[in-house]
Amino acid sequence: MVQTFRICEQHSGRSFICEPGQSVLKAMEQQGLRCVPVGCRGGGCGLCKVRVLAGDYECGKMSRVHIPPDALAKGEVLACRIYPQSDLAIECQPQQAVGQVTK
Question: Residue limits of the 2Fe-2S ferredoxin-type domain (predicted)?
Fold first, then answer.
């Protein structure tokens, strides 16, 4: 049996499952959740920024413009470039805070 990881978003209380080797953003999208805006999906645009409050994860390459070392040290990462190694508690930035217009 493949171990999966539960990702819980603190503001909404919603949670979703993430497979090993799957990015948090991909898991979120596959389950129809929209916690963060989505841009390039490659770590360059900075739109899918989240803060990891608890749990272990690995990071892929991320733009240092959007995630400088001091932000990374505070748990700020891009959902498209983190891969859980345990269950995670995350905090999503409100979509309006990053300038996305909603209809």
Answer: 3-96
Residues 6 or more apart whose Cβ sits within 8 Å of residue 79: 23, 24, 25, 28, 35, 36, 48, 49, 50, 90
- Contact criterion met (CB below 8 Å) for 24 and 18: yes
The CATH number of domain 5-92 is 3.40.50.720: no
Instruction: Express each pLDDT in 51-80 by its tens digit.
Output: 999 999 999 999 999 999 999 999 999 999
For CA atoms 53, 33, 86, 39, give the dihedral sign.
negative
pTM across the whole model? 0.86
Q: How far apart are the C-alpha atoms of 9 and 7, rounded to whole Å?
A: 7
State which H helix or E strand residue 57 sits in: strand 57-59
Q: Which single residue is written with the structure tokens 């070392």?
A: 69
Name the residue type at position 63.
S
